[in-house]
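agent> Task received from the user: take the single chain below, predict its 3D structure, and emit structure tokens. No templates, no multimer pairing.
agent> Plan: (1) validate residues, (2) run structure prediction, (3) serialize to tokens, (4) report one or two observations.
agent> Step 1 OK, no nonstandard residues flagged.
tool_call: predict_structure(input=
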Amino acid sequence: MRGSITRVSRKDGSGCILAEDGKEVCFERSEASRDGVDKLRVGHSVEFELQYGFERSCAVNIKRLHRDAGQRPGALNCP
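)
tool_result: status=success, residues=79
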């Protein structure tokens, strides 16, 4: 599944992703890829898997995609 980061807490390492289907899914620090949650920012595009839990679904195996929200395909990513 794909989506974009909507919230990230630096304090506890949790956050939320707005999935392509319009649903918001939460994640924990341990589920971010090797770059870790510290590298994730609001608006970053990510790919993830859903893990269905007792109370709610959670995002797992989160990986940042190179193209972030608001960028056109093929646009240069200049600072």
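agent> Step 4: summary for the user.
Residues 35 and 63 are 9 Å apart (CA to CA).
agent> Done.
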